[in-house]
Amino acid sequence: xxxxxxxxxxxxxxxxxxxxxxxxxxxxxxxxxxxxxxxxxxxxxxxxxxxxxxxxxxxxxxxxxxxxxxxxxxxxxxxxxxxxxxxxxxxxxxxxxxxxxxxxxxxxxxxxxxxxxxxxxxxxxxxxxxxxxxxxxxxxxxxxxx
Length: 146
Description:
Layout: E1 11-19, E2 25-38, E3 43-57, H1 71-78, E4 84-88, E5 97-99, H2 101-105, H3 113-130, H4 139-145
Parallel strand pairs: 1-5
Antiparallel strand pairs: 1-2, 2-3, 3-4
């Protein structure tokens, strides 16, 4: 059983790694701010506040010069800033969480599902608030109509 090493409001470095189609590895380290804890699932709810480090390595682990980074994938990394996600407590150990490339490209909604759920909840709340109030039938008025 894992335990949280950080509390709500604290930050830690969260590292993600993706294997690119050409065999390179892209590694990105974000400052992750803890927004909530989900003890039964042993997870943090975090926001990726900023990109604090990144590198790209060839298939043999050799560091690529910055000017040869795959710009299209690094642009996608930049879009992860500000995203809310859930991650297992173990991510706070500093080791990279190896991800499927589809999580970076958006084909898998890992980095977007939390905000998608928030957007859906917001839309439902807005629709609920648009329902005219005072027109609801109370149990007593239903009896009176009969």
